[in-house]
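In this section we walk through a basic example: taking a raw amino acid sequence and producing a predicted 3D structure, encoded as discrete structure tokens. The instruction is simple. Fold the sequence below.
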Amino acid sequence: MAVWKFQLLPAQTGILGPRYSIDTIAQTVADEVNDALPYRFRFHKIVKIVVWLGARDGEPDYHELDGVAEKQTPGFSVQSYADASDEAKIEMLHNVVREAFAWFEANFDDAQFITDTRAKLQWLTSSND
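The resulting token sequence is shown next.
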């Protein structure tokens, strides 16, 4: 059984699929990150990271609850993503993950899991795909 440690979710519902569904490209990127993340983060008491694609009205940019860390990406447009080519979608999502992980590193001293993940994902270390 897979351990879901990382998830990308659209802040706006119904654009990519029903409710908070994502497309196969976003799922593939999320799967790559899941496979690269260490089994245990050793980051606070976090067991899962959710990166929201876009801003969620009334929600803080970042919060932790019940072992889940949720980070928003307010500059992300789900509609622009939906209209983009497959190659552009991959680049957009890689940038989102890079920026979210850089944010974790800048804001938390115990975000070592980022270094471990970078060692397994070459695109996480480069700024151009």
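Looking at the output, two observations stand out. The two ends are 31 Å apart (CA to CA). The longest strand covers residues 48-53. In the next section we compare this with other chains.
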